Amino acid sequence: MPKIFKFNYLSAAGTAILIAALIVIPLVGLSYREGGQVFGATLKQLRFPILTIASVLGFAYILNDSGMTLTLAAVLANTGFLFPFFAPVLGWLGVFITGSDTSANALFSKLQYATAQSIGVDPVVTVAANISGGVVGKMISPQSIAVAAAAGNLVGKESELFRFTVKHSFYMLIFICLIVLAQAYAIKWIIPVYEMLGNKKAAAVPDLSKGYTYLLVLGILLAGIAISVLTTAKKKVQTPDLVN
Fold this sequence. Notes:
- This protein has 2 domains: 14-45, no CATH class; 47-191, no CATH class.
- The mean pLDDT is 82.
- The protein has helices spanning 13-27, 32-45, 47-66, 68-77, 83-98, 101-118, 123-137, 142-151, 158-185, 199-202, 208-238.
- Helix 7 (123-137) packs antiparallel against helix 9 (158-185).
- It is 74% helix and 0% strand.
């Protein structure tokens, strides 16, 4: 299976964060030199979590490409009538392995949809359960724990943090499993009535004018906030402190 790395630097999330940081640095009263020093200190603090996240992501590729993840999903999908109860477990496992709710949805959403249809359950229930279970699994994901430990100056205590959060994750997962099982059979009325879009409607060209209007309003709002912050900062510098 070819693994092709695409260097999409403009569309990457980190690029937007970098541009935002460069804009914010002078707004918070720092020079770019001081901002670079903060970046270096942060990078040093997160050196072990960064290595951990990269290792876990590599392990996730091994799990997915070897078929281990899909094998676990197939086992849970064979539970038949009780599948809605185990549907959140799929999302929970997916996020624990990959560290991303988006990745877990990409892995298991199609399986959740097809299995729900085969047993006569609304696919909305199981696909939503996959997302909910993934959110609960986020608190025990190795990537999330590594980042939290680094941010809280707890590097080296990841195992303690995991032992603390895993019980809460299990409790919440079981609670969600029971809710999903009830939604699938006992309280079906809680699912809103919806209609699948046809090919013609799905292929319709969206109205882009609303998007440009939204961006224009957002840009004006952000510019106003930036001006107010700079004005307030200048007034504080010009106004001498009053001593009682």
